[in-house]
Write a structure and sequence with these properties.
single chain, mainly alpha, 434 Repressor (Amino-terminal Domain), two-stranded antiparallel sheet, 18 helices
Length: 433
């Protein structure tokens, strides 16, 4: 990418080191950007609009900087990925921080061996125990790069399921927002770590989930050590090798053996398309090797024949009701606002089961969560009222008529489409002399 450098920008950003460098717990680039803005005591939105947008010279960023809007932030997962967005942000952040190692905070080195489709989660996921542990030990709180991958569902360190919604407001979080704080919800500002997961084995995973996470974990470490991006034909060459070794060069038989449609598989072998990460993991698990071994064409590890069926997950459906009861009481005693839906997801069971087995506890928790949600909604509305009134008065003092459009441009969020906010604006207009 040819970066347009604005020579009027002479100051550089702090050269803070990425967290988890050289390990599978390496920090994501979006997380690094958030911490960088916090280090400068400015919002992430200010960092993007004042420092990044002018240098990147991208129309969509310049429009956001001028007019507001959340389109970029809502789709900011690409910053950690394998495309041009990741490349652009690596270059500009390295330029401003004088660092040269931020490629390892994205998956850009996988750009030639994997497609973008299905690779990354659209919104954030995180391990609540990682956050909680960092907070208790007074360590730097950050988002790990591995949490961005759709194929990774579990934290190997704590053996708990990754969470993708705030347990307080039940909303998902974009990778970047205008006012990000590491470890806190972008929407309701609640802490995303939790003690609920401290009682182990709340959720039972099949071996396949852990195998996939471990293979990805190992490949991230290997990738960090690699200086060059993998070549485009690396996967097709490896597939051709194993087809010859195991299936006597019979592509049709290999496709059936691995459990893929033959036409799709042939495109992968020819190198015309790249298999998604989930498919490569499936192949590696059947070959009983990791991704690096697959790319290096190392010997097939299994003595068993690959059968003509996909691996099936053996999900444990048994629930320890003694543990469930203890955790429900823990939530109640500590007055943790959490929905029954989220609790059922944590336990890996149906909400009907919880209501049937623990009706009193569920009723209490539902009412508690409803009260909390209503209070949060009221507080957010009052906060918006305050912002609108302040911006309204500023426009009046500047002798600018406070029209709906002008007000929206000033505060950065819409008011005309939301009844309460529109009525607040109209009530303020009545007081104009």
């Amino acid at each position: 990418m040819n970066i347009f450098v604005d020579e009027t920008i002479t100051s550089k950003l702090y050269n803070i080191p990425p967290q988890g460098a050289g390990t599978s717990e390496v920090e994501s680039l979006s997380s690094y950007i958030v911490r960088l803005s916090n280090a400068h005591c400015i919002t992430t939105g200010s960092l993007v609009s004042s420092f990044l947008a002018p240098i990147l010279n991208k129309d969509y960023l310049l429009k956001i900087a001028k007019r507001g809007g959340n389109g970029f932030y809502n789709s900011s997962n690409g910053i950690n990925g394998i495309g041009t967005v990741a490349e652009d942000f690596i270059n500009v952040i390295e330029l401003l921080t004088s660092r040269n190692d931020l490629r390892n905070n994205t998956f850009i080195k996988w750009s030639k061996i994997l497609p973008t489709r299905g690779l990354l989660r659209k919104t954030k996921a995180w391990c609540p125990e990682c956050f909680e542990e960092s907070k208790k030990k007074n360590l730097i709180i950050y988002d790990q790069l591995i949490w961005n991958l759709s194929s990774v569902e579990v934290c190997l360190k704590h053996r708990v399921k990754l969470i993708d919604q705030c347990i307080v407001c039940n909303k998902s979080n974009s990778h970047l927002s205008r006012k990000c704080v590491p470890g806190y919800c972008n929407n309701c500002k609640s802490w995303l770590g939790t003690n609920i997961q401290e009682i182990k084995n709340i959720v039972s995973f099949d071996d396949l989930v852990y195998k996939k996470a471990q293979i990805v974990n190992d490949f991230i470490v290997t990738t960090i050590k690699e200086n060059n991006i993998y070549s485009k034909d690396r996967v097709s060459v490896s597939l051709t090798h194993y087809i010859g070794e195991i299936f006597d060069e019979n592509i049709s038989l290999a496709a059936k053996g691995f459990g893929f449609p033959e036409t799709t598989f042939r495109y992968w072998v020819k190198g015309e398309n790249q298999p998604p990460l989930e498919s490569i993991l499936h192949i590696c698990i059947q070959l009983r090797i990791n991704i690096n071994q697959f790319l290096l064409k190392e010997p097939y590890q299994s003595t068993e024949k690959i059968q003509n069926k996909k691996l099936e997950s053996e999900i444990l459906n048994k629930h320890d009701h003694r543990v469930i009861y203890e955790i429900l009481k823990f939530i109640i005693n500590n007055e943790i606002p959490i929905s029954i839906k989220r609790i059922s997801e944590i336990f890996g069971c149906d909400r009907k089961l919880l209501y049937s087995k623990y009706p009193d506890e569920c009723t209490y928790l539902r009412k508690n969560f409803d009260v909390h949600t209503a209070l949060q909604k009221k507080n957010r509305l009052n906060q918006k009222y305050k912002i609108i009134e302040e911006a309204f008065n500023n426009l009046v003092n500047e002798t600018v008529y406070p029209s709906g459009r002008k007000l929206e441009e000033r505060i950065g969020f819409p008011i005309l489409k939301e009844k309460n906010l529109r009525e607040k604006w109209q009530s303020l207009k009545k007081n104009i002399k």
